[in-house]
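Page 42, continued from yesterday. The earlier attempt failed because a stray header line got pasted into the input along with the sequence. Redoing it now with the clean sequence only.
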Amino acid sequence: MSSSLSVYLLDVARTRALIGSGDDQLLEVMRAEFGDDMARDDDYHRSSIETGAPTSDEALRAVIHGGPFDDDQNHAFQYGYAYKRLCSLTGRFLPNDCFTPHRGDWLSVVDQGLAAVGITAVSVDAFSDGPLPAPLPYTGYTPGCDEWTPDRIAQALRQFGDARRAAEESGQTPQPEPHVKEAVEQCLDWMRYAVARPGHGVIGFRS
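This time it went through. Structure tokens are written below.
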């Protein structure tokens, strides 16, 4: 079974502030934008909804209004999908062809490639199971979520620059496998897009 990664460029702080904002105008825009998608998801998750999980619309309203949230961890995936829709509406979708689809431990392999070029401040594997931003409840199920804040991205790019200079001075430039190198370059592109826009970072979802 394969997985996919959806990555968005957006103002991380402003996106967090939309959670619990009570913005009913935004809620209506999202209902109009994602109504068909939400209906398909509800049909797919019908058995979970019948056992108490919120519908896509109920989850979306809870995210915008800051609750109430179902405290059953088995139902929290609906809030993850609602938050993903929020990010897709307000953010810019970033190229992800190195990650969609992917199988097995590919994200951890790419993390090893990032570490090989000096980068440890960010992780693509964290998109698998990172926590949703508060007050959204934690879900151990898809979609996984994590964010690369502007500070973490700036640190990662400093690490990359320092490691590259050290490699040039030593004459030992790391050479990841070509497919890993391509994925690392895509991650670097995401970070460069972010630093070009003050306050922006990356929020990613694995599903």
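Notes: The first helix runs from residue 12 to 18.
Reminder to self: strip header lines before submitting.
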